[in-house]
Amino acid sequence: MEFRHLRYFLVLAEELHFGRAARRLSISQPPLSLNIQQLEASVGAKLFTRSSKQVALTAAGRAFVPAARALIDQAAQAAGHARDVGQGMAGSLAIGFSGTMLYSGLPRILERFQAGHPLLRLTLKELSSSEQLIELAHDRLDLGFVHTTRVPPELSQVLVSSQAFVCCLPAGHALARKRSVSLRQLQGEPFAVVSRAVSPDYHDRILAVCAEAGFYPEIRYELRHWLSVVSLVAQGMGVALVPAALKQSAMAGAAFVPLDVDTMPYETYCLWKTARDHQALAAFVKAVRAIAPASKP
Known about the structure:
Blueprint (H helix, E strand, L loop, with lengths): L2 H13 L2 H8 L3 H15 L4 E3 L4 E3 L1 H28 L4 E7 L8 H11 L3 E7 L2 H9 L5 E4 L8 E9 L1 E6 L19 E5 L5 H13 L5 E6 L2 H9 L5 E4 L10 E5 L7 E8 L5 H13 L6
Parallel strand pairs: 3-4, 3-5, 8-9
Antiparallel strand pairs: 1-2, 5-12, 6-12, 7-10, 7-11
Helix pairs in contact: 1-2, 1-3, 1-4, 5-9
């Protein structure tokens, strides 16, 4: 049984006339008759009764009509899905991100992308920058959003966001109501930071800016997630320097105060393997570039 047989059968079932059915199919009557005979032999039952005056469906033919239509529809859907995947319009993308991206443009990127590509399924994995680099290297991620400039040469990158650091303080802290805070005013305070294992760039940057201010921070807590840092500060257990976007977390008990000096910005990059020829990946990168303030080749 071939799909051609099903198509011919359905047209003849609608027309109940070999001449009209053949014209609709743009073939002559003999090939149509031959294909119907082949289909009946394959099914093992007569599908039509034929006389000099009329063509009619048998009971078996009437029962076969919905099944034949379902098979044709399934084949069309399968072909359409394969075509969409081939064109990057369907399938899936695995995307890595760190927690701050939830406040630094990732929801907007996802909304923009899904609106234009509703058949593509996005799978998001919260990972540290170093973990994302490993996953990208092993093709377990299609893209990643990282906070490091230590990027292997085989990866392309786009700068997605650049933001200042702010001081995160317990709401009841003496400095929490100030318009700005000097780094020196934090000397002696217990610091909460994201651990070096999770974000070596950030960890080293905190040590560097404090050293420039003339002191070494008393790091009391090393955590894996930014929101854990903010949560710990909100409970009055320490202070932290965090990306300004975390103010959007609006966590009760935490206050965010600008620093009185500029520090090196906290930058987020979107990374992917340059050599990957993946149309869905290219479409997602295009959505990222649409909101990116700058890009790197």
